[in-house]
Amino acid sequence: MLPRGRPRAMGAAVLLLLLLVVGFFLFGRDPECKRRSWAGEEGTLCDRCLLTPRVFSDGLGTTATLDEDPYGSRNLSASSPQLLLPPKCEMLHVAIVCAGYNSSREIITLTKSLLFYRKNPLHLHLITDAIARNILETLFRTWMVPALVVSFYDAEELKPLVSWIPNKHYSGLYGLMKLVLPSILPPSLAQVIVLDTDVTFSSDIVELWALFGRFSDKQVVGLVENQSDWYLGNLWKNHRPWPALGRGFNTGVILLWLDRLQQTGWEQMWKVTAKRELLTLMATSLADQDIFNAVIKEHPHLVHPLPCVWNVQLSDHTLAERCYLEAADLKVIHWNSPKKLRVKNKHAEFFRNLHLTFLGYDGKLLRRELFGCPNQFPPGAEQLQQALAQLDEEEPCFEFRQQQLTVHRVHITFLPHQPPPPRPHDVTLVAQLSMDRLQMLEALCRHWPGPMSLALYLTDEEAQQFLHFVETSPVLSVRKDVAYHVVYQDGPLYPVNQLRNVALAQALTPYVFLSDIDFLPAYSLYDYLRASIEQLELDSRRKTALVVPAFETLHYRFSFPNSKAELLTLLDAGSLHTFRYHEWPQGHSSTDYSRWREAQAPYRVQWSADYEPYVVVPRDCPRYDPRFVGFGWNKVAHIIELDAQEYEFLVLPEAFSIHLPHTPSLDISRFRSSPTYRNCLQALKEEFHQDLSRRYGSAALKYLTALQQARSRA
Amino acid sequence: MLPRGRPRAMGAAVLLLLLLVVGFFLFGRDPECKRRSWAGEEGTLCDRCLLTPRVFSDGLGTTATLDEDPYGSRNLSASSPQLLLPPKCEMLHVAIVCAGYNSSREIITLTKSLLFYRKNPLHLHLITDAIARNILETLFRTWMVPALVVSFYDAEELKPLVSWIPNKHYSGLYGLMKLVLPSILPPSLAQVIVLDTDVTFSSDIVELWALFGRFSDKQVVGLVENQSDWYLGNLWKNHRPWPALGRGFNTGVILLWLDRLQQTGWEQMWKVTAKRELLTLMATSLADQDIFNAVIKEHPHLVHPLPCVWNVQLSDHTLAERCYLEAADLKVIHWNSPKKLRVKNKHAEFFRNLHLTFLGYDGKLLRRELFGCPNQFPPGAEQLQQALAQLDEEEPCFEFRQQQLTVHRVHITFLPHQPPPPRPHDVTLVAQLSMDRLQMLEALCRHWPGPMSLALYLTDEEAQQFLHFVETSPVLSVRKDVAYHVVYQDGPLYPVNQLRNVALAQALTPYVFLSDIDFLPAYSLYDYLRASIEQLELDSRRKTALVVPAFETLHYRFSFPNSKAELLTLLDAGSLHTFRYHEWPQGHSSTDYSRWREAQAPYRVQWSADYEPYVVVPRDCPRYDPRFVGFGWNKVAHIIELDAQEYEFLVLPEAFSIHLPHTPSLDISRFRSSPTYRNCLQALKEEFHQDLSRRYGSAALKYLTALQQARSRA
């Protein structure tokens, strides 16, 4: 209970207590710990100085507060008197090694938790392989977080520095790279916090940074003690861990005092130790951690032990409970079991919830500025903010304008992906979807055995559901040639053409089939397209668009035709129709279905108003016009662009794809029910035509004429 | 920058500094403030003690830290030396007045922000009207948050205590109730934090609670200064605010020292002041806040001014910027403009993001226990946890078992609702849906002019999108007779029958039409059903189920028949079909469509295997069996239950409803593609039959026989 009666007297008592505590911290604790453990008695460091709940009471007698809170996490750690936080605008530096698809997802969740609690500018130093760099460069560029700087370092270049160390840990060579950070980070950088990708913050990193202030003159590395018995040895027969002080230290969270490390000859030091140990130990089991521990065992004065709350380690057989059960304040959770979130632990649910908080957290909400700190805006952010601020909220098409300007976070290749081998006639299916079309993916995979590039418009939470969906689908989980690009939701209108452009930009084959998610291609289409591209020698005449005729069924369950002949039979029986024959015949009339029935060879067709066929084009074709958001005219504008650039439309006689029925989208419902929505679409069309005239001059006249004719008919 | 060289010397310096600061806080600051302002010089309190950025440097000379951080928010406030946090398991008390639908939504967002940062057990004391109580009792019961106690107090009973005060503020009588909290909260409660529903926490409330420790002996109320010029007067001609010290105080966040208030005769004190002021001022403009300020003006020793970060007030013309621009740490945001989130403020985006964080935060993640605190589980939570822990993760139907046990948070009447007037033959349409069926709602409203009770299965984020959807729909926003109940998503299988039961339990008319969201009733159905109920004198023979025959169309756009005759024409033309005639004829065969064609009067039909008609039944009909989650057999089981309880099935000759096409749900797709899914459904059916036999004995034999026959056919 809080003392209620006499605040001043209480204040004085507290002051006295604080003096004792401060004194203890400054003059009592570290030497005590060092005396007991640095002398080499294994096990004493952890038992007495970090994991034993009684350490603070030793020097102080029994006081309620200290007894109940031995880890210095509540009234003592971050808020403890001797800990002065750096000024609010001081940049904090964080280094992380990250390689591959899965770690790239992990690091984003870690970053969200960092950003959520941080109040200082952050500089992330990311040591990445080509895959992670590709993903993360796009992500951070589109994320546009104020007061966040990201630098990339090529992990390939570091490989030779550590590849001589045999390593059995699943992290491979990347796991060892933390050892060489002092040599590769900029010399201007005096201090850095190094993190594993599998940690989650639940507090402000500035409190961790401030612990540099507790280092003694000689200390260069801040670490939390290991919360498992691994380094004690004898876990099984012939279990022989690397040398360590007691339980050793965990390297998931490291405070590196870089300039001091340089001065102490770190590079030589760890190499000498590693080489000597490798003579008998053959390989590292826990990568860098083994070597850090061996060095510390030899030079114990180098390490500054950190409170355990800064690296709560959640393995199956963790001793972490001894840390957190007493602490009200957990600072960093470390999912350092290979089982990750599925780790068995009686409080696993608690930790999972903390992690899920950031997994599902809407990253755009972290585009928060830091009040009163200068120069915090990433490239383009200020201009964007100004453009958005200039929009008139009362204007009827405000929502459209705002949606057009929105920069969505983009996470390319969200899942592991095997890029297709280079083949001159290969075709990637390009499409976009949101959560309500997920059930199309399995069927699509059965119909299209080739590469796909799909953009998904999802919330952060849905992205996790999507991940689960793919991982548990026997059909999808084996298809490594399908690249999924997550575009994060922001705003009420579906940014259909922005999505298409993301998927198109990530297609890696020379040709792309620009499709929609609710169409299933003929089973033979992938092979047929590649054969046609080869036969038609498209590579020598690049400006060709191959048209794939579109049909539709109104039945959810129907047997998909195995050939053109079967398709024609269904068409004649009325079970199939040409696409949108009743609602929007002009969309596909140029395809000339009656000619297609009889055609044996590709035939050329001319553009006509509102034509929007599904086409196969070279990958470098024009992009979709991102001004078209929501429902309507998004493909039509793209086909006009192709025509204006003098693409030739060739209909393929054996190609077809069939539209399956689905619930009308919210956007189409709004289009139908709202005159404003239709007026705004009309305004977009007109602006598009103005741009077209500007770019193509009189050649664009025919599109304008067509629009005017269409309008006079309406 | 952090000092790097000599940590001990630095530590000693910091210690010295702290001593000065502590001394200043304990012995310097409060008297200084009091001398200057309590003497009655208006404006000096705020200028010198709260809003002026130089106050701390007065006593200390210029030090970087203190100069830069005048609000004591970073190194000094929560973490400041004299502020001792209460023990981690100490219960903190919070009182909130809450009335109506919209405030009930607000308070949930506030509670999420509280729970997110809190590390202590919390006791919420909610003073509610009947509407809020109904909503919040259900919500907190189903939320099952550990270490959270909720008590309700009837606002009706408080009305007479404040209704004599004329009040012009939009909060009405409820706005005044904070004045009487000291008389109605339990006498055992010594201290309480009082909050408005429109505040958002961005820090741990324990830090606010700890400020009680800074109260002097005489102080009884902790408040943050007002961040507008309202109480300075002269904002416009004849603007005459209530008396206040300088800018006065804002009552959105109050620390009430209850037992001291009692001792000081608070009740008499505020009444005397209010009555006196009302002689000249006629009415309060800002409800309780005017009276609090008038009392404080008269008895300035009662107030303990709180740092401004604990109530950052976001009105259009707020002075809050002077508070937060200097502070890195905002603690509580107060949306105290009637415009709420649409407030104009150059940092509005920042504050909105903070608020949106909790608006969309998945509340189930707050079911986190507090480590090391005893007795924190709400009723049923421990048993539930045990039952879940006993499930075998490797069992093939694990997902089904887990989903059945899941307790979903339920927010009944999410939007303002006008209960239907009591009418003996009235019927409520009952259905459930998820986000992907939202576009059905407008059409449904056009077809059914009567009351509806709809359960929506949503994430927290989707609930906000849903709110926006209804508010911007001209059709939906005017329909106050539609009650929307949000059931929050948790788990991979759609809990269809749990949803139906929520909607059914909230229906307020004597009869319910148990429908599905993808059906549109005949335009006349609502009137026809009420007439039929009256004519058939159903109230005298309660066990009747009126059958509404079901049809389907495969076209998204079709003209809905205006009569049975028109429907029959469409049926004959093949544009309509009897429901699932091709896929699942047994579902509706008992309805006997050919008899219905000719029928002029209601006719009785017998149950047969797999019968699942849409029926109208008394509100107290049996509930749906919640074991059926995902796709399959959920309605069939309910109809069996009706039959087993000897309900009579009467088909209505003029009633019909038509199913519109939609994309197959993920659940039906999984049912079709996964043998495990089908096996689990089969297991559920068998368990259902076993229960049936247990309850109805030999009378249930016919259902089992039917099941076995069906299986032998399969």
From TrEMBL, chains A, B:
Record field: catalytic activity: 3-O-{beta-D-GlcA-(1->[3)-alpha-D-Xyl-(1->3)-beta-D-GlcA-(1->](n)-4)-beta-D-Xyl-(1->4)-Rib-ol-P-Rib-ol-P-3-beta-D-GalNAc-(1->3)-beta-D-GlcNAc-(1->4)-O-6-P-alpha-D-Man}-L-Thr-[protein] + UDP-alpha-D-xylose = 3-O-{(1->[3)-alpha-D-Xyl-(1->3)-beta-D-GlcA-(1->](n+1)-4)-beta-D-Xyl-(1->4)-Rib-ol-P-Rib-ol-P-3-beta-D-GalNAc-(1->3)-beta-D-GlcNAc-(1->4)-O-6-P-alpha-D-Man}-L-Thr-[protein] + UDP + H(+); 3-O-[beta-D-GlcA-(1->3)-beta-D-Xyl-(1->4)-Rib-ol-P-Rib-ol-P-3-beta-D-GalNAc-(1->3)-beta-D-GlcNAc-(1->4)-(O-6-P-alpha-D-Man)]-Thr-[protein] + UDP-alpha-D-xylose = 3-O-[alpha-D-Xyl-(1->3)-beta-D-GlcA-(1->4)-beta-D-Xyl-(1->4)-Rib-ol-P-Rib-ol-P-3-beta-D-GalNAc-(1->3)-beta-D-GlcNAc-(1->4)-(O-6-P-alpha-D-Man)]-Thr-[protein] + UDP + H(+); 3-O-{(1->[3)-alpha-D-Xyl-(1->3)-beta-D-GlcA-(1->](n)-4)-beta-D-Xyl-(1->4)-Rib-ol-P-Rib-ol-P-3-beta-D-GalNAc-(1->3)-beta-D-GlcNAc-(1->4)-O-6-P-alpha-D-Man}-L-Thr-[protein] + UDP-alpha-D-glucuronate = 3-O-{beta-D-GlcA-(1->[3)-alpha-D-Xyl-(1->3)-beta-D-GlcA-(1->](n)-4)-beta-D-Xyl-(1->4)-Rib-ol-P-Rib-ol-P-3-beta-D-GalNAc-(1->3)-beta-D-GlcNAc-(1->4)-O-6-P-alpha-D-Man}-L-Thr-[protein] + UDP + H(+)
Single GO MF descriptor: xylosyltransferase activity
Pfam families: Glyco_transf_49 (PF13896), Glyco_transf_8 (PF01501)
Biological processes per GO annotation: protein O-linked glycosylation via mannose
Cofactor: Mn(2+)
Keyword Manganese: yes
GO CC annotations, alphabetized: Golgi membrane
Top-rank lineage group of the source organism: Eukaryota
UniProt membrane topology term: Single-pass type II membrane protein
Coiled coil, from the record: none
Chief place where the protein resides: Golgi
Protein keywords: Glycoprotein, Glycosyltransferase, Golgi apparatus, Manganese, Membrane, Metal-binding, Multifunctional enzyme, Signal, Signal-anchor, Transferase, Transmembrane, Transmembrane helix
Localization annotation: Golgi apparatus membrane
InterPro entries reported in the protein's UniProt record: Glyco_trans_8, Nucleotide-diphossugar_trans, Xyl/GlcA_transferase
Pathway this chain belongs to: Protein modification; protein glycosylation
PANTHER family found in the cross-reference section: GLYCOSYLTRANSFERASE-RELATED, XYLOSYL- AND GLUCURONYLTRANSFERASE LARGE2
Family per record: In the C-terminal section; belongs to the glycosyltransferase 49 family.
Function: Bifunctional glycosyltransferase with both alpha-1,3-xylosyltransferase and beta-1,3-glucuronyltransferase activities involved in the maturation of alpha-dystroglycan (DAG1) by glycosylation leading to DAG1 binding to laminin G-like domain-containing extracellular proteins with high affinity and in a phosphorylated-O-mannosyl trisaccharide dependent manner. Elongates the glucuronyl-beta-1,4-xylose-beta disaccharide primer structure by adding repeating units [-3-Xylose-alpha-1,3-GlcA-beta-1-] to produce a heteropolysaccharide. Supports the maturation of DAG1 more effectively than LARGE1.
Name of the protein: LARGE xylosyl- and glucuronyltransferase 2 isoform X1
Protein source organism: Mus caroli
